[in-house]
Design brief:
The chain has about 525 residues and is mostly helical. It contains 22 helices and five strands. It is globular and about 70 Å long. The chain starts with a strand and ends with a helix.
């Protein structure tokens, strides 16, 4: 049951997104002239916002969701929604913002435009907070657009870098397409359900799903939400800009990869009940997310640039999380989002971690291909490990089809880990450590799932009863992941084949999607 709070504590939550914006406004008006004072104020406000959201999060998780009164006219205005999803996302955003502000102080030290960078960074983080805490449809839409525009100003911070400007231009085009789609979806949702309150929209969509009476406009809006999320999270084929924004300052890259790309996953989860109304929307999530995850992770190993490899890594994670949303595994998708954000922020802010990451993911390969029987044995061992750990923890891995599919893909990944560690030339100590690592990874997976279910169970959409079309898409996706795992295991035996060498070139060039986008932009500019 949601609590409408007229005073405390929901209204206090406004301080988190608005305080940074106030600091940015004061600095832009030269009310704060010193760069150091701008930094000090921003850092203090971010630390205070993090502490505030921690306190509000404890209240929310113990007392239940809260919404503040709408501040505005009719249904247009701002309102804060404090539930498990929004407070956990606010923890991530405020903590990441605090770290980036501190890092930027040293990274841009001596830059004559450092104050302007802080202003743009504060506005971006403020817009993200307004978006994740939004309780009103129009607030979410406007914050979504504002977040994108503020990020654009960070991407073009060095206008003399032609490649960065080109990447920002492509990002601007993709973002405006997404903004248009979100506006249309918001209009359709408001007309269909007669409200702009996100909580009431969620209840109305859940009621429509339970009754089977699906409004056509709601189904169209669900598809638009998926398309908007795919554009925001750099899904294939609109991913090229992500590979080229690396000439921006490192804090911007960290903010982008660890924070703003995740907005697409958050949008789908926030409108989870609505997305469940449309089978095509679920299938689109599975197909787009699954293909992007496989494509990006395969292209990543062909890259020689560290930053491009990290870009493909982020793209693969985004695709996998959207695919999980298509499966209905929203709780695990959000926990994956939080874990990936923390890891990727650390990777970008620590050059040593980047080098180590590339070495661990791109440089280590099997010397020889495994025997087919060895592959099957390791898959059986992976299944046995999962079933054993799940049984010990009292978890039924077959209770939901989407969850079973997710676990199957994870078992395939663990099997690949076992294949790499249990090769014929590996000593017994290596095999033992590999088995131990597989067991620990499995236990961590189930611990993550149980924790996510406990924290987010009431704040996100529950697993829907999947129909035949969605089940077929899920089965085909799982089978595809299995085929890709087998292909990766036998890769050492294929590297000298002409077909693989041709595929290697195609993957290294991203299947030429970015090249086609460049040609489209150039043609459009010439036409103008």
């Amino acid at each position: 049951m949601e609590i409408l709070v007229a005073g405390n504590p929901a209204l206090i939550g406004y301080l988190a997104p608005l305080s940074l914006a106030v600091v940015a406004l004061m600095a832009s008006l030269n009310l704060v002239r010193s760069v150091n004072l701008t930094f000090q104020l921003g850092r203090a406000v971010s630390a205070g916002s993090f502490a505030l959201m921690l306190a509000l999060g404890v209240v929310t998780l113990t007392s239940g969701p809260m919404v503040s009164p709408l501040v505005g006219i009719d249904d247009i205005g701002i309102a804060l929604r404090l539930d498990a999803l929004s407070v956990m996302m606010s923890w991530l955003v405020t903590l990441l913002g605090l770290l980036l502000i501190q890092f930027s102080r040293n990274y841009l030290d001596g830059d004559p435009r450092q104050k302007l960078f802080f202003i743009r960074l504060y506005l971006t983080v403020s817009a993200v907070l307004l978006m994740v805490l939004a309780g009103n449809l129009w607030q979410l839409t406007l914050a979504w657009i504002g977040m994108s525009l503020a990020l654009h100003e960070l991407l073009v911070f060095y206008p003399e870098r032609s490649r960065a400007m080109r990447a920002a231009r492509k990002k601007f085009i993709v973002a405006r397409l997404g903004d248009a789609g979100l506006i249309v979806a918001a209009v359709l949702i408001a007309q269909t359900f007669g409200t702009t309150d996100l909580g009431m929209i969620r209840e109305a969509a859940a009621a429509a799903l339970a009754s089977g009476d699906i409004p056509v406009n709601a189904a169209i809006a669900a598809i638009l939400i998926v398309i908007v999320a795919a554009l925001k999270s750099a899904m294939f084929p609109f991913h090229g800009w992500l590979l080229e924004v690396m000439e921006t300052p490192t804090p911007v890259s960290a903010l982008l990869h660890a924070g703003l790309l995740n907005a697409g996953i958050f949008l789908v989860v926030r409108f989870g009940e609505l997305v469940f109304l449309s089978t095509p929307a679920l299938i689109l999530l599975i197909v787009l997310g699954g293909f992007t995850a496989i494509f990006a992770s395969s292209s990543m190993i062909t890259q020689t640039s560290v930053k491009v490899s990290l870009a493909y890594s982020s793209m693969a994670h985004m695709g996998f999380m959207l695919m999980l949303c298509g499966f209905g595994a929203h709780t695990v998708a959000i926990m994956h989002l939080i874990a990936h954000s923390c890891y990727k922020a650390h990777a970008f802010l620590s050059s040593g971690s980047i080098i180590e990451y590339v070495r661990n993911t791109g440089a280590q390969k099997l010397d020889t291909a495994p025997h087919p029987i060895s592959l099957l044995v390791n898959m059986a061992v992976s299944v046995a490990v999962f079933v054993g750990v799940a049984t010990a923890l009292g978890i039924d891995i077959t209770k939901r089809p989407g969850e079973t599919a997710m676990i199957t893909i994870f078992m395939i990944a663990v099997a690949y880990l076992l294949v790499k560690g249990n090769s014929g030339k590996a000593p017994i100590q290596v095999i033992g450590r590999t088995m131990l690592m597989a067991t620990l990874v499995t236990a961590a997976f189930f611990a993550l799932e149980v924790t996510a279910e406990a924290l987010l169970g009431g704040a996100v959409a529950v697993y829907p009863p999947l129909n035949a079309q969605t089940m077929v898409a899920i089965v085909l996706t799982v089978a595809t992941f299995g085929i890709v795992m087998a292909f990766s295991a036998f890769l050492p035996a294929l590297v000298n084949r002409p077909a693989w060498q041709a595929l290697y070139v195609h993957l290294k060039n991203g299947l030429y999607a970015n090249t086609l986008f460049d040609r489209f932009i150039d043609t459009f500019r010439l036409a103008r």
